[in-house]
Amino acid sequence: MAIEIVIFRLQEEVTRADFLAAVDETTALLKTQTGFLSRTVSQAESGEWIDILTWESIEAAKAAAAVFQTDAAGKRFSAYLDPQLIQVFYTEAVVEASASK
Asked: Residue 36 maps to which CATH number?
């Protein structure tokens, strides 16, 4: 399993509602991409946003990123981000644990 982590800030003029609408729209796009498993978007106390996506492989994540950059929804989402404050990481999961009931 691969994990894609994107850390960013929004452009100052972007409203939370507009951004979350873009998240919904791009999540629908991501669900159509081969290898997509899940997405979690959260906001840190410091104001940064964190987008965590899980994929079957890093190759699948990068292929979807190429589609994301050319799709109208992906372009709209990306325009909301401050281009000076974006970090992207692709990682392979090494250890995974979850709570058991």
From this structure: 3.30.70.100
